[in-house]
Amino acid sequence: MNVYIQGFLLQLSLILALGAQNIFVLEMGLKRKYQYMVAAICSVCDIALVLIGTLGVSNLISSVVELKIIVGAIGVLFLVYYGVVKIKDFIFFAKIKKSKVDANYSKKKVALMALSFTLLNPHVYIDTFFLIGGYAGRFDTQQDKLLFGFGAGSFSCLWFFFLAGFASKFSDFLIKESVAKWVSLVTGLTLLYLSYKMGLDSFEEFLVYIN
Question: Please, which residues have CB within 8 angstroms of residue 24's CB and are 6 or more apart in sequence?
Answer without folding.
Answer: 38, 113, 114, 117
